[in-house]
Design goal:
Layout lengths: L4 H4 L2 H5 L1 H11 L4 H5 L5 E4 L14 E16 L9 E9 L4 E7 L4 H6 L5 E11 L2 E5 L2 E4 L5 H6 L4 E4 L8 H11 L12 H6 L5 H9 L4 H32 L12 H7 L7 H14 L6 E6 L5 H14 L3 E5 L3 H15 L16 E5 L5 H12 L3 E6 L13 E7 L6 H8 L7 E6 L5 H7 L4 E5 L9 E7 L4 H16 L3 E5 L16 H6 L6 H10 L7 E4 L5 H12 L5 E4 L12 E6 L7 H8 L9 E7 L6 H11 L3 H12 L2 H7 L16 H17 L7 H10 L2 H9 L1
Parallel strand pairs: 4-6, 9-14, 9-15, 10-12, 10-13, 11-12, 13-14, 16-21, 17-19, 17-20, 18-19, 20-21
Antiparallel strand pairs: 1-8, 2-3, 2-5, 3-4, 5-6, 5-7
Helix pairs in contact: 9-10, 10-26, 10-27, 11-13, 12-13
């Protein structure tokens, strides 16, 4: 939301090339406007100290503290053999804890003179541990005194802003740079329409920028933050509202199923009745399909809530109406599974053009990258001639060679694994834009859906079909209680003895080349071992606790035919235990599999664990999911696992997940990796603002779709939607 000419001044001109270079490379800041929108992370109060007790390891921190004592030591070393080496140790305190600073060699002179007991300063550096105590080695520091002219200016406010900083640029240097450009804030053009700002009592933008960078009171900070949240929510919602408006202008062919056609024949032979939820969502979809502009609908549903059935009925309706439907799956394994299960559900209705096919039947073809030439040629022919009403495939469907007779509906499974360019390319296959149904089994909290998929109407399936069994989940603390792990393997044996099967999931395959030069992350260092691997675990289980059972492996680097053979044997009950990576996360359906053991469960995200767990309990027998971890009881990782074990409600879990990870991950996807536009807005906490901003945005766009009378808003939109994102939203 970087604004207008005065704010478009490059930082190079204002701050000089060296500083501008660091800001561009490390913070992504290029113009005066960028810098004004680099908000403080938090504020320190004079006389109130940071909690030294809570400092994170290996992070770059800024603390305000007071020198308690300073001692100069001499020592002998290779460089200074006669005991001439010097080390200055300074202890600082903030009342909650103490922290040691160390300076060596020639670097001791200046701090030795300046850091006298009682001195207060800002210190910045990387926290490390030496002799089991926290320390900062050679920290940068800025004394907090009120004498020199410039210092008085800089630290005049009682509240000291602490900026997101880097090792190359300390927080106070960013503060000084902002001080230099702050006068330009007067020229910031306000993106909010006056009526909205006045109606909600929001502070004008120039004033907000002063308040956020140089607050005099805590109330200033609150005012500024709530106003900046509004900016972010509103501008994003206007972008989405304009897309919805533009989509509503596009032509599409209305697709109404004919009475007594394919859909009626299919419904008549269903061995069960649809749940209330399935009926409601189907109606929403059929209503959309009957209109003359393209449907854009997001269908979210719990694992196993019957999304595929709803999507299949929508595809049959379109075939009934003379069109074709395509279903896109993220992997070949999944495409093959969808194909198999849809052909099974349809029976002779999937045998169009064959002897014994039903009079209403159509052909259901599979198209994937690894198919043989002959089968592929036949599938392509069936699509062009319209013999195939339904095609299921991976992105092989999008290749130039693939042509449809009349593509009416695109169903995308597991949206978050599927690129925008790919959806766009498939949409371009229709004579007019086809209707679009996006399915996801990762439940998305309402506000995230409004923020990220705000251009899609949302349908939710939250009822499980009758006959689905409950899943019991337990955390297995392998390090604290090794006997719990032994018991887990006994439970797997018991399930197999009762005629069932089990999954064991691991984070890694195990045939990767380990690069000795590759630097380990602090987390790996702390855990001293790489994540458990499929190949090793399968071997240990087959020789140890699961000896005598038929154990097989499945992972993403296997040849597609081998993967398919493994899945077939497992589905047929020939394999007792499948040791796999997350390739089984989505859509694998083996009702006889009742137990799942997830190794190193702390290495998976909350939503991913929920997805994995949905693979068991798909039949009439109860499911069991064991989350194995070596993390200590008090760790955040264990709290995450406890949350997963405590509830089967995916929406509740996705909220927990988001609160822990923030929304960078969620929005990162939606903004094609561009710097996330949300700096103030927290999607979960600010639900009300997002909902209100959505209403306001819809009203503004309905009244003035081109935003002719709102130049400030247009500028803000251009900045939010640089070309890359604009295209991203266009393609949706």
């Amino acid at each position: 939301m970087d604004l207008v000419p005065a704010l478009e001044e490059p930082l190079k001109k204002v701050l000089g090339p060296p500083t501008a270079k660091v800001m561009a490379e490390h913070l992504g800041l290029h113009t005066v406007g960028d810098l004004l929108h680099h908000y403080p992370r938090r504020y320190e109060e004079r006389g109130q100290l940071t909690h030294l007790a809570d400092l994170p390891m290996d992070e770059h921190v800024t603390v305000v503290a007071q020198v308690a004592d300073a001692r100069l030591h001499t020592f002998a070393s290779a460089k200074a053999p006669r005991g001439k080496g010097q080390r200055l140790e300074v202890t600082i305190t903030d009342g909650s804890g103490r922290l040691q600073l160390v300076f060596f060699g020639a670097g001791v002179h200046k701090p030795h003179k300046e850091l006298l007991p009682g001195t207060r300063a800002l210190f910045a550096g990387k926290v490390s541990v030496f002799n089991r105590r926290l320390q900062l080695a050679h920290p940068a520091y800025e004394l907090l005194r009120g004498d020199a002219e410039e210092t008085v200016e800089t630290w005049a406010g009682a509240l000291i802003p602490i900026y997101p900083a880097t090792a190359k640029l300390e927080s106070w240097k960013i503060g000084k740079a902002i001080q230099t450009v702050l006068p330009s804030a007067q020229e910031a053009v306000d993106p909010l329409p006056d009526s909205l700002r006045d109606g909600r009592g929001l502070v004008p933008l120039p004033e907000v920028l002063l308040k956020i960078h140089r607050p005099h009171t805590k109330a200033d900070i609150e005012d500024a933050r709530s106003r900046l949240k509004w900016d972010e929510a509103f501008v994003l919602q206007v972008a989405l509202a304009r897309r919805r408006h533009a989509d509503a202008q596009l032509p599409a062919v209305a697709r109404t199923p004919k009475p007594d056609g394919l859909l009626t024949a299919f419904d008549a032979r269903l061995p069960f009745t649809l749940t209330e939820g399935q009926q409601k969502v189907s109606k929403e979809i059929f209503d959309d399909l009957a209109t003359e502009h393209p449907m854009h609908r997001l269908l979210q549903g719990e694992v196993g809530s019957g999304k595929t059935m709803v999507a299949l009925r929508a595809m049959l309706a379109v075939v009934d109406a003379g069109g074709q439907a395509a279903m896109l799956a993220p992997t070949e394994v999944l495409a093959q599974q969808h194909h198999r299960s849809i052909v099974e559900m349809m029976g002779d209705l999937a045998e169009g053009g064959m002897l014994g096919g039903n009079e209403h039947a159509t052909k259901v073809v599979l198209l994937t990258g690894s198919m043989g030439m002959a089968a592929r040629r036949q599938a392509l022919l069936d699509l062009v001639t319209a013999d195939a009403g339904i095609v299921i495939g991976t992105h092989a469907l999008i290749e130039d060679k693939v042509q449809f007779h009349d593509l009416g509906l695109v169903v995308v499974d597991e949206q978050h694994r599927f690129g925008v360019e790919q959806r766009d390319a498939l949409r371009g296959k229709g004579k007019q834009p086809p209707h679009l149904l996006v399915m996801t089994a990762t439940p998305i909290p309402r506000t995230v859906a409004m923020t990220v998929f705000g251009d899609l109407e949302t349908s939710v399936l939250d009822q499980l079909p009758a006959g689905r069994s409950p899943i019991a989940s337990h955390v297995v603390p392998a390090a604290d209680k090794p006997h719990f792990l032994s018991r887990a393997w006994e439970r797997v044996r018991e399930e197999v003895e009762n005629g069932h099967q089990a999954y064991v999931v691991c984070p890694r395959i195990g045939d990767e080349e380990v690069d000795p030069k590759k630097k380990k992350s602090a987390e790996d260092e702390a855990e001293k071992r790489p994540p458990l691997a499929v190949l090793e675990v399968a071997d240990q289980l087959a020789k140890g606790p699961l000896q005598g059972l038929r154990v097989e492996v499945l992972h993403g680097r296997m040849h597609p035919d081998d993967k398919d053979a493994v899945m077939r044997r497992f589905a047929a009950g020939e394999t007792h235990v499948l040791v796999a990576t997350t390739v089984i996360e989505v859509g694998v359906n083996v009702p006889n599999a009742t137990a799942m053991v997830i190794m190193d469960a702390d290495r998976f995200g909350v939503s991913q664990l929920h997805q994995l767990r949905g693979r068991v309990g798909r039949g009439s027998a109860a499911g069991l999911c064991l989350l194995v971890t070596e993390m200590p009881e008090a760790s955040p990782a264990r709290q995450r696992l406890n949350a997963v074990a405590a509830t089967l409600d995916g929406f509740e879990l996705s909220r927990i997940d988001l609160e822990q990870r923030r929304e960078g991950d969620v929005l990162g996807q939606a903004q094609s990796g561009a710097r996330t536009s949300l700096r103030m807005l927290a999607v979960i906490e600010d639900e009300e603002i997002i909902a209100e901003a959505r209403e306001e945005a819809a009203a503004v766009v309905a009244a003035d779709p081109e935003l002719t009378h709102l130049p400030g808003l247009r500028t803000a939109l251009d900045a939010l939607l640089d070309e890359e994102r604009e295209q991203y939203l266009e393609k949706g």
